[in-house]
Amino acid sequence: MSGLPKRWNDLALQRKLLIVSLLTALTAMLVALMVLITYDFSVVRVRLVQDLASRMDLVSLNLDVDMNFGDRRAATRTLSALRGTADIHSACLFDVRQQVFASYARSGGASCAWPEGMAPSGHRFHGDHLTMVAPVRFQHEVLGYLQVEYALQPLAERLSKYGLVLAVVLMTLLICGMLQAVGLRRLVTQPLLALSRVADQVTREERYDLRAPHFSNDEVGKLSLAFNTMLATVAARDAALRVSQSLLTNIADKSSAVIYVKDLEGRYLMVNERLRQVLPPGSPDPIGHRDADMFDEDTVKVIREGDRRALLSEHSYIYEEGVPDALGVIRTYISEKFCLRDEHGKVWAMGGISTDITDRKKSEVELIQYRDKLEELVQLRTGQMVEVNKDLAESLETLRRAQDELVRSEKLAALGSLVAGVAHELNTPIGNSLLAVSTMIDQTREFTRLTADGMKRSTLQAFVDDVASGGEIVLRNLHRAVDLVASFKQVAVDRTTSQCREFLLCDLANEILLLLMPTFKKSGITVRQDIPPTIMMKSYPGPFGQVLINLVNNGLTHAFEGRAEGEILISAIAIDAERVQVIIRDNGSGIAPENMGRIYDPFFTTKLGKGGSGLGLNIVYNIVYGVLRGKIDVESELGIGTRFVLTLPLTS
Predict the structure, then answer these.
(1) What is the predicted pLDDT for the residue at 569?
(2) What class does CATH assign to 247-361?
(3) Mean pLDDT of all residues in the chain?
(4) Cβ neighbours of 516 (radius 10 Å)
(5) Residue 353 contacts by C-beta under 8 Å, 6 or more apart in sequence?
(6) Where exactly are the structural domains of the chain?
(7) Would you say the pTM of this structure is higher than 0.85?
(8) Strands, DSSP E only, in 312-410?
């Protein structure tokens, strides 16, 4: 019996369905049979008792007179009337003392005996017979009792009447069961078998491109679609896994480090090509073998001790170990070993990466030796450098003083140039004034002489016109001289005091250009400014003027060499409420690209020995980033020109 469930589980699904269908039909037939038997006992017998009681009541109506007059023959004739009911076997009539009064028997003699244990009115079934006792009354007075023995039809005969019905039911159930099995085989079993064959082929051949046939859109069809979707997903994951595995294998094999994975028994599960290369000659393939199969006992102890500590560690375990290579030479490795855990956190293997550091260790030893020698040399050189540094410090201080002196000289030279230019510029209006005054004096003398001899009206008018014209010439030239003196005085004051004050940027530019006019007028170069008259600054006009003078002089000196004409433009624009951008642009020859990174270096000049000191732009750089707290940028292109851009705060 214990093997029956196993055999049932091993049966094919279609056989299980057929057996279940047959068992269902048999169960239905047995249920129908039980229903018929129950119907026989609970319904048929009750009706039989009711019918027999009705017949006995009819007979009792005729027997009450016979018993009242004591007429036994008439009672016997009345009982004989029961012969019309074929199933009544016998009848007995008892008086009130339960003595036989009359009887009837269908065949043979009637065995009339009062049934033991029965009440004067009632019935009982025994075997295939029904015995019923009913009282005989006359005007509510009991005269006797009528007992009837009814022969029941055998149960088998009664059930045989339902045999055809049961047979039809049974055949219908069997046919329906067979049709159900065939339908289930076609609708369920065959698609499942096809699905099973595809699954088996996929398992055996690992062909994830196969697909199960799709018969319908019912549950089995949905199962096949889900199976095909699963195959597609598995195929994609298998392809990705193969790519990832190939990539990992390639990385591991190309690595110069030794990479491996061991199980908990110490057997190698995965190794890279580098490990195979360093194994001693004659060693077996590491896969499936332990360290003892490839290395000597001492080496195995070192390796196994590292494995043990790695398995006990929560994190990776890093240490140095010596392992012989293929030539038997001990190589030093720095090994990092770590545990591999499954999704439940249980350790199932150990991985390791060992990097050969033998050459590095040798280099470290050599480096330590070299360091010791170097320390000796450093100590020796340190003493020498102390003396050299003293001399260098003195030379540097001398150089700094010389540079300061050159800067002062450069400033004085610029100031001297300004003074010479202003003096030359003053000579013109003063000379014009002297010429006009001397002419007016000569004309006055001539007028005086003419007055003594007699003067005409035309002569007076000519004298008045000449005096007026001479006065205008003198006045205009004197105003010019006054303006020059005032501009020079303001510039001189600003350069001398370097005080912070408010000024209009356009006025400062005009003053600078007025002072530089003698210089650029002789060169033929046009210098002009295009600055809005609304830009007000609170800064240091003296250093700012020095910056403008140096940038304009730098353009006059370097930008227009060999050229008789050109232009330098000073413009400005307010960037925002706090900053202004001043641009000094020329259309000269430009700066060579190789010199762009050195133009602010002190003493760098392309005019060495030709009047250039190399300090002009260095002074500009220091003033812009120092006193004016701004920045300076330069853009230049050979043959196009140079553009200096100053970005300065409106309030310093």
Answers:
(1) 93
(2) alpha beta
(3) 76
(4) 20
(5) 257, 258, 259, 335, 336
(6) 13-152, 247-361, 501-649
(7) no
(8) 317-324, 330-341, 347-356
